Amino acid sequence: MHTLVTHSEAETVDAGRQLAARLGRGSVVLLFGDLGAGKTALVRGLAQGLGADPEQVSSPTFTLIQEYSGRIRLYHVDLYRVAPAEVDDLGLDELGDGQGVVAIEWADRLPRAVGGAVEIRIEDLGDDTRRIAITGWGI
Ligand code: ADP
Ligand code: MG
């Protein structure tokens, strides 16, 4: 497990940007953490690192899956409003057909484990401090 502590949103974005260098087509990144932990901020960094426009990355209210085109396509999934029983209907297994990177916020809503995924847990330590724990895929 790799753990780091960030002290600003920009530092968390940068952590995502650096992690993107270790991802490739078919990579899956599962994000865990409470509302406001910084999951979307980290995905913004992934987008940047994958050559997409980070400014497109947000958490819109009604969009479950967003796509950002870059060097490698990024599929950004937010399961906050999805019940675990409904997740199967989203077809996440086929998302991107193994050709893109899939990043899933609120991955605890997934009905079963995803083999080979990178797991990122973000914890709010107060103020602008966040602990980011990364496991999986040799990291
Ligand atoms: P989530 O997607 O987990 O709900 P967001 O990334 O949307 O969280 O929001 C994180 C919020 O916390 C933003 O308002 C951001 O400015 C703030 N923030 C403060 N410090 C940090 C930090 N170290 N890393 C990430 N976000 C931070
Ligand atoms: Mg979010």
What does this structure look like?
- This protein has 139 residues and is an alpha/beta fold.
- It has a single domain, classed as 3-Layer(aba) Sandwich (Rossmann fold).
- It is built from three helices and seven strands; from the N terminus they run βαβαββαβββ.
- It has helices spanning 9-20, 39-49, 84-87; strands at residues 2-6, 28-32, 65-68, 74-78, 101-105, 118-124, 130-135.
- The protein has a seven-stranded mixed beta sheet, covered by helices on one side.
- β6 (118-124) and β7 (130-135) form a beta hairpin.
- α1 crosses α2 (39-49).
- The mean pLDDT is 93.
- The protein binds adenosine-5'-diphosphate (ADP) and magnesium ion.
- The site of adenosine-5'-diphosphate (ADP) has 18 residues, from α1 and α2.
- The site of adenosine-5'-diphosphate has 18 residues, from α1 and α2.
Q: Whole-Å distance between the termini?
A: 6 Å
**What count of domains describes the coordinates?**
1
Bound molecules: adenosine-5'-diphosphate, magnesium ion
Instruction: Give the low-confidence spans.
Output: none
Write the layout of secondary structure elements.
Blueprint: E1 2-6, H1 9-20, E2 28-32, H2 39-49, E3 65-68, E4 74-78, H3 84-87, E5 101-105, E6 118-124, E7 130-135
Parallel strand pairs: 2-5, 2-6, 4-5
Antiparallel strand pairs: 1-7, 3-4, 6-7
What is the gist of this entry?
This protein has 3 helices and 7 strands.
Descriptive terms for the model:
single chain, 139 residues, alpha/beta, Rossmann fold, seven-stranded mixed β-sheet, 3 helices, 7 strands, 27% strand, binds adenosine-5'-diphosphate, binds magnesium ion
